[in-house]
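Tutorial handout. Part one gives the primary structure; part two gives the three-dimensional structure as tokens.
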Amino acid sequence: MKPIVIIGGGASGMATALEIKLRNPILPVVILEKKERLGKKLLATGNGRCNISNSDIKGGESVWDFLHNAGILTRQEEEGRMYPFSGKASDVVERFTQALLKYNVSIRENFPVERVCPLDVGFAVLGPKGEEIQGSKVVLATGGKAAPQFGSSGDGHKMCKDLGIQVTRTFPGLTYVAVNEYSSELAGIRAKGKATLFKKGQMVAMEQGEIQFGKRGLSGIPLMNLSSQVTLGPEESISSYQISLDFMEGFPEEHLEIFLENIISKVGGKIKDLLKTVVPQGLAKEVFRRAGISESRCEEEATSLTFKEKEDLVGYLREMWWTVVGLGGWKDAQITIGGVALDQVHLNTWESFRWPGLYIVGELLDMQGPCGGYNLHLAWKTGMQGANHLVKSLREAL
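Part two.
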């Protein structure tokens, strides 16, 4: 029997292979991995801790049971994020590799696939130096374009296009947001707040949490989630997007005015000290700058502030506007926005409409989630679902 060929040894590829073997151990399976080892991108997820899933996902029990059956013990942390109990992504990759070897999955590393060609029965997978591997079924689990340093550089998109499968326009997702008039002096500042994305003055999405000021732009989970909402039509400019930051969420504006007046009248001090305990010092400098209060003016007594200056300080703490000028590139992105259009596959089996026996799983699909383990969960889930349908179809064919 021709083997089942899985192209890509990342999260979705490993999940597919293992689920096939758990369903039918005698089926021959081969994984073709472009890099020198399996799970390169997985090793980097969650800053090396591997944010493997999220406990807030409804109906996630099948994935969590699958992970536990693979020997991966998990723990839940803030906002439902799930990690391996050891806190090491390398342990997850090693567990999967051990399980795959136990079930005699053939693993071909350093094998970049160039094309997939349909045959009268099955498919031919063309690799380096003209090598050809024929498979009864093929699973495309190549990943998208995000983090190409780990192997996902859009190869799967090209394979799909060569097969006449529609691929939607792709953008970097879960990355930093580059904005106008950004100063590198802001780098390293972190502050709780609310970030709202607007397009041509219309609200697109809102996120709350820790806002981070990086070397090249705005980051942190709220901004990374918003970055995935920035998509452009052929004639659209990225500058049509704006971001508003609110560092006083839940604190009414009139209360903030009273609070500042209280400091001025009862505590005193210089203007530069007025926002202590309100926002980090570096962020306070940006608020003063936007309010037109110079560094020399900041050395004056707070009692000298005019009504307009106080009004502006409150305003910029509540609404600090930025125009979007770009997004972090593919190297900085965690996921790909866009990919194989969902009308090209059977939902929940991920088999191609056009080419029965060809499955498309994981990040290659135009299906994304926010930060917090949601995208890895999709990788496990689509791989499992594709594997289950694949094994069932082979059983029914006998």
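Part three, for discussion. The longest strand covers residues 202-213. The chain has two domains: 4-171+334-397, 176-328.
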